[in-house]
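Below is how a single chain appears once it has passed through the pipeline. First comes the sequence as given, then the structure the pipeline wrote out for it. We keep one example in the README because the format questions we get most often are answered faster by looking than by reading.
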Amino acid sequence: MGSIAQESRITRSSMSDNLGKDYIASARALGVPERVVMGRLLLKPSLIPTVSILGLDIASTFGIAFLVEQIFNWPGLARYGLSAMLHKDLNAISAVILVLGAVFAFVNIIVDLIVARLDPRIQLNATRSG
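Resulting structure:
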C-alpha cells in the first residue's frame, strides 16, 4: 500500500511530460476524442516507468517477507531461510536464494513483456550471429 503513492506520482509525472508531445497535439487537432487521447495515446506510454518500478516493488516485497514472517511467527519461505541461516545449512540457504532469484527473474521477464506490449517501438528480437 505504501508504494501506491510512489507509482501514482510517477504516472502523473510521466503523463505531464508526455502531455506536451507533438503526437498528443496532433491527435487533438485531428479531432480524436479526449478519452482516446488520454487512455490510449497518453496513458500507455506513461505507464512504462510505473510498470518498471512496480516490478522492483514486487521484488522488495520478498525482502520484507523475512521481517514480517519473523515478527508474526508465520511459516513460509523467508522463515525457512532464516532458520537455515541460523543452523548454517548451506544447501537450504542455496535453495532459498535460488527460488527467490527465480521469482525475481520471472517478475522481470513479465515486466519486460508488459513494457513491450505498452510500447510497440520496444521489440524483443533475438538476433542471430554468424
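The helical segments are 2-19, 22-29, 34-72, 77-86, 90-118.

See the next section for the split statistics.
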